[in-house]
Amino acid sequence: MIRSIEMTDLISGIIYAFAALFVILDPLLSVPIFAGMTKGQSSREIHKQAFIAIAVAGALMYIFLIFNTAIFSVLGLTLSTFQIAGGVILFLLGMQMALGLDICKSKNETPTAAGVVIGTPILCGPGAITTVMLLSNDYGYLIPFIAITLSLGASWIILYFSAGIQNILGPVVTDVMGRVLGMFVAAIAVKFIFSGIMGTLGLHLPL
Fold first, then answer.
1. Which of 53, 54, 83, 205 is a plausible cystine mate for 156, CB 3.0–4.6 Å?
2. Does the CA dihedral 90-107-110-167 come out positive or negative?
């Protein structure tokens, strides 16, 4: 019975962490950008750029997952203050996504840099880094590690087939989905801010 409960907690934790990361990574928002930056390139090059994007985003996310405590110590930060600051950033990011504003996008990047630009800051920006660090505090390393791996895998598939997805969904549907995901990001941000305030007051609110 105890093992069953622990397994249920593990699965529910992974599902929540994956959902939070996938929403914040928002690979569907990257589809039109990635497709535009790799337009005219061969399928092999497009797939290569998709791999580079995921590799860059993954490297940053795993680094902040493993060394977040050390980073906190060096900078003299507490988790509660980081939750509040990170929550504010997430909220602004979510509102930008929901309102269809540009989010650290450069229109002058060359196609060969598509993988790096998509990897960061579009996929792994302040929002993703903040989420990884907060999830590691509440779940340890295993659940966020699995969630990061799953979210990166899903993002890679979406970028790999970005051209086909763009043609199937069309720019209107892609834009609407990006805006809806933006609202979810904003909602998650509110929870982070509230959790940070509770922590500052000496209380605890599970993520």
1. 54
2. positive
Q: Is 146 exposed, middle or buried (0-12, 13-18, 19+ CB in 10 A)?
A: middle
Q: How would you label 84-95 residue by residue, b for 16+ Cβ within 10 Å and e otherwise?
A: bbbbebbbbbbe
Query: CB-based burial of residue 158 (10 Å sphere; 0-12 exposed, 13-18 middle, 19+ buried)?
Result: buried
Give residue-wise pLDDT tens across range 94-146.
Answer: 777 677 665 544 445 444 466 887 887 678 876 788 889 889 888 999 999 99
**Contact residues for 95 (Cβ-Cβ < 8 A; gap 6+):** 182, 186
Residue spans of the domains in the chain: they are 16-21+30-200
179-203 pLDDT, tens per residue? 777 787 688 778 778 877 887 787 6
The position carrying tokens 């970005």 is 162
